Amino acid sequence: MLYLGKYPSCKVHSRLLIAAFFTDYRKKAGEMMLRVILELFRIITIIFVIGMIMGLIIHSIYAIFGITVENTTGGWIVGMAIFPLLYVLYKNRLQFSGFYKNGKQVKLSNRTTAILLCSSVLMLTVAPLFR
Fold it and tell me: Ramachandran region of residue 70, left (φ > 0), alpha (ψ -120 to 50) or beta?
C-alpha cells in the first residue's frame, strides 16, 4: 500500500491515483498494440499488392522488348529489385499515412534513397542477362 501523507484519506486518494494511472496505461498500451498490428498488416498488404503490380509492369516492359525472365535466375533478380523500391516508397511516403504514429519517423536520406534506387535499376537492367 502506498501512503502519501499522514491522514487516512490520503491512502484512498493514492489508491485512486494509482488505479487511474494503470487503467489509463493499459488502455493506451492496448490501443498502441492494435495500431502496431494494423500497421504490420498494412505493410504486408503493400508488399503483396504493390509488389505484384510492380512485377507485372516490369514483366510487361520486358515482354515489349521480347525478353522473358520468368522461371530463370533473372526472374529472382527482378523480384529482389522490387524490394528496395518498395522500401524507399514506404519509408519516404507511406509510413506517414499509416495507423502507427511516432515522432521518430523520418524519411530516408537523399544518399540512401539514391543508392537503393540505383541498385534496383541496376538489378533490373542486369536481370535479362541471367537466363
Answer: beta
